[in-house]
Amino acid sequence: MLVPPNMGSSRRFRAPLCALVLLSPVASGAVVNPEEYRGRPISQIRFEPATQPLPAEQLRKILPIDAKMPLDPTKIRAAIKALYATGRFSDVAIEAQPATGGGVTVLIRTVDQWFIGPVEVHGKVKAPPNRGQLASATRLELGQPYEEDSLQKAVSSIENLLKRNGLYHANVDSQVTRDDQHQQVALTFIVDSGKRSRLETPEITGNPGMPVDKVAAATKYKGWFRWKLATSENVQAGERNVEKKYEKQDRLTAAVILKGREYDAENDRVKPKLEVNGGPKVKITAEGAKVSKGKLKKYVPVFDQGTVNRDLLVLGARNLRDYFQSNGYFEVTVDFHNENQGPDLEKIVYTVTPGTRHKLVHVDIKGNRYFQTDALRERMFLQPAGFLYLRHGRYSEGFAKSDENAISALYKANGFRDVQVDIRTIDNYKGKKNAVGAEVTVTEGPQYFVDSFKITGINEQDAAALAGRLASVSGQPFSEANVGVDRDYLLSHYQSIGYPDIIFDWKMTDAAEPHHVNVEYIIDEGERRYVRDLLLSGMHITRQRLVRPLIDMKSGDPLSWTEMGRMQQGLYNLGVFDKVDMAIQNPGGTEPDKYVVYHLQEGHRYSIAVGAGAEFARFGGSQTSLNNPGGATGFAPRGSFDISRLNLWGLGHTLSLKTAYSTLDRRASLTYYAPRYKNVEGRNITVTGLYDDERDVLTFSARRYQSSAQLSQKISKATQALFRFSYTVATVNSGTLKIEPLLIPLLSQPDHTGMLSASLIQDRRDDPLNAHRGIYNTLDFGVSDRVFGSTRNFTRFLGRNSYYHRLGQHFVLASNTEFGWIAQFAIPNGVERAQAIPLPERFFGGGSTSMRGFPDNQAGPRDLVTGFPIGGNALLFHSTEFRFPLIGNNIDGVFFHDMGNVYSSLGNISFSYHQSDITNFDYMVHAAGFGIRYRTPLGPIRVDLAYSLNPPTFNGLKGSYQDLLFGTAPAVRQSVSHFQFFFSIGQAF
């Protein structure tokens, strides 16, 4: 509260609680009746301080008083309330001072209200808790009013959170930086976590029902060698461990409550205080049918809720009934009873009478005229039995009720307000014993329509423009669901153009024509709000030039939550911020112009990832042996290590080192990634250096050194274009090259390839990891020429089309086609066309992702002496898969057929089924098989078993690499095995 410097010279109106006090002292200091000043004209209105947080024009609109108006205490009170309502002032006092000519000068003294700006945590922070959790603990919300005592409360909250995580030696300091122009305070908390304390034996109180030392041991607060750290997670884990111990003893109602923590400063130990009440043993069993304990835990909620009451037991009986009905026991009855066998044992027995097992063979829908039958089936749980899936169908009373409600809701949303849906079962359907049919009868009733529609509360032009986007307009079906859709649209629309306080109401009356209604939407727009300015904070490393293109909102724009959310999402998409807080400063104030505040929390600058895996298939073989040119069963462990430096230069760029090591391939790449080139969304530049030691082709091992630069441009949500130039140096280890000795000098020469290429990618799959519908297309074309430093001139084309089509609700038909072609041109003199393309640049194919009738990279032409694959200049593969549910919800099955091969040239592509002779590999190989997919968050784990119908036969050798060079290796006729198997992660395509 401001106090005037001289109480004897002024008249003061004070309103800490919007109350008014009018004092009129004279020179002697006596107080006279204020009524004698009522009605005097206001000569002048002045503010102190002269600079106010609101523009003068807004203040004039807010105040109900003005110069030349008679002084009215009622209007003075209204002025104080109006100033407080803006939210910009923490205190307002008004004084009336005598002016010349018998008038009054009104002096308004104000104290600005401060608002919470960026809240950051710096210093030496040991997680847990992390910096974000510490900042959240302050409960200081961006844009909200700031009170002076909030700072100490925030410090106390941080200290309490640190102590709950064992950091009793932590030190918390705070800094407050005030932005006078925007009435905003920046709060920085400097935290030094210090040493973390360790736990000790907990204190157990209550009625545990077992020895206290056993309860304490059950917490597992002590590890193998010493006590665990006193983090909140470890303390809570101890509570859960005790609960699990009681659960194993069937004490399902046991309660474990953390009552507090006691810190022993002398020994730096934390003693958790647990109140434990064991409760009686509760045994839940089932009789009459076999129900595993796991199923009882899943369907009887007593296990989850930790209490026993009749409602939970009834719900358990209902769940068990639905479970048995869904497995074909449609006439099952489930009841329960309690058997108290002493003060420490309560037995609950569910009695299950399953009855005869049935099969739901048919679901008939009749009475529907407005909707097609397929549209209704898509919304139903009830399903007839299938050949592989739901062998007894899916039926339960709960499912039937849900289907009735779903179909009714669909009809009501389209104007059928009186619709009735009834589902009944038919035993011995069509005379088949234990066969059940379900009959869904829809009584649609009349359809209601909107006869007249109008929007009131806004001008006619706006109403006409909005009506075209609404569902409840004249001539359309009427339903409350459509009104709800319109309400959401109107609220979103008005809030997006600066009306945050819009109020929507509606009413309906019967029209003259039967089954027609009149609909009226009543809108109160409220006052329109505008952006005063945008305040951005938190960028310590990130540069303004990265962020500014995403900030489209400017002073004077309508205050739009839609636009604010779009900018927030754009900032997240940069990938450099862990958190983007967004708020309106002074959200409750009546001021028309608002500050929009964004506080950005920059992410960690380094990212490290370590991975491990393995591949098990027929790909093995020795690098020094001529045996097994068709591959042998092998196990390939894999490991990877990646490290990335993020937000490089503060521009969102990334420098990444990725390494992978396995028995098949050893790779390291260094990549520089620059997103949003020229501030264009979806336009990115990537520069990469690659080292690759290839060993997955048994014919040879090669080292590849590659540098490349790529520009990618997102054309649409589903389509992306890539343009790149790469330069590759590949050296083949002649000591591993298992081909005719006369060709080794030629094909082991170093390969230099400079290639300019472009790619087009179109991805319309619903799920890239496990697609059920959509398409995936890729086209890649490149040119290698001596102009680019290449040793050979050729063009390379590779195209792929994947197609996914859902059959019914559970089956998927998927197909994948790949076509590739390498065309030589300007072949040097003395080089045969067949040898013009270096080995590392040829197509190699076959394996788990292309053609499962071959081991990895075993398709196509082979060396006529050794039998090892030498790659080709064309490829054509086609795969078809029929995917279906197999066991439960997570295990699927796949029948597949693969066909194709790698060919020596484009002109030699052949669909011939038979291999014409032992030296001809240009024919179509076919394979059929069965696979299993187990769903995981990383993609399905895949096992495929394939049988090659017509694998190639070829001439090979036995012996070592030295035998090859000296010509002493005996010739042996060989063939690729008919049986192939693959184990990996991810679908084949």
Give the topology:
Elements: E1 11-14, E2 42-48, H1 56-62, H2 73-85, E3 89-98, E4 104-112, E5 114-124, H3 131-137, E6 145-146, H4 150-164, E7 171-179, E8 184-192, E9 198-199, E10 203-207, H5 212-218, H6 232-248, E11 255-264, E12 269-277, E13 281-287, H7 293-299, H8 302-305, H9 310-325, E14 333-340, E15 345-353, E16 359-366, H10 373-377, H11 397-412, E17 420-426, E18 435-443, E19 449-456, H12 460-467, H13 480-496, E20 503-510, E21 516-524, E22 530-537, H14 544-547, H15 561-573, E23 577-584, E24 593-602, E25 606-620, E26 632-648, E27 653-662, E28 665-674, E29 683-694, E30 702-714, E31 719-732, H16 744-747, E32 751-763, E33 774-784, E34 794-807, E35 811-824, E36 874-887, E37 891-903, E38 925-934, E39 941-948, E40 953-957, H17 961-966, E41 971-975, E42 979-985
Parallel strand pairs: 2-4, 5-8, 9-12, 10-12, 13-15, 16-18, 19-21, 22-24
Antiparallel strand pairs: 1-3, 3-4, 5-6, 7-8, 11-12, 14-15, 17-18, 20-21, 23-24, 25-26, 25-42, 26-27, 27-28, 28-29, 29-30, 30-31, 31-32, 32-33, 33-34, 34-35, 35-36, 36-37, 37-38, 38-39, 39-42, 40-41
Q: What do you see in this structure?
A:
With 989 residues, the chain is of the alpha+beta class. It folds into 9 domains: 7-112, Ubiquitin-like (UB roll) (Roll), CATH 3.10.20.310; 114-192, Ubiquitin-like (UB roll) (Roll); 198-277, Ubiquitin-like (UB roll); 281-353, membrane protein fhac (Ubiquitin-like (UB roll)), CATH 3.10.20; 359-443, membrane protein fhac (Ubiquitin-like (UB roll), Roll); 449-524, membrane protein fhac (Ubiquitin-like (UB roll), Roll); 530-602, Ubiquitin-like (UB roll) (Roll), CATH 3.10.20; 638-707, no CATH class; and more. The chain contains 17 helices and 42 strands. A 16-stranded antiparallel β-barrel has the order 25-26-27-28-29-30-31-32-33-34-35-36-37-38-39-42. A 4-stranded mixed β-sheet has the order 1-3-4-2, covered by helices on one side. Strands 6-5-8-7 form a 4-stranded mixed β-sheet. The longest helix is centred in the N-terminal third of the chain and has 17 residues, at 232-248. The chain is globular and about 125 Å long. The two termini are 73 Å apart. The model is unreliable at 1-34 (pLDDT under 50).
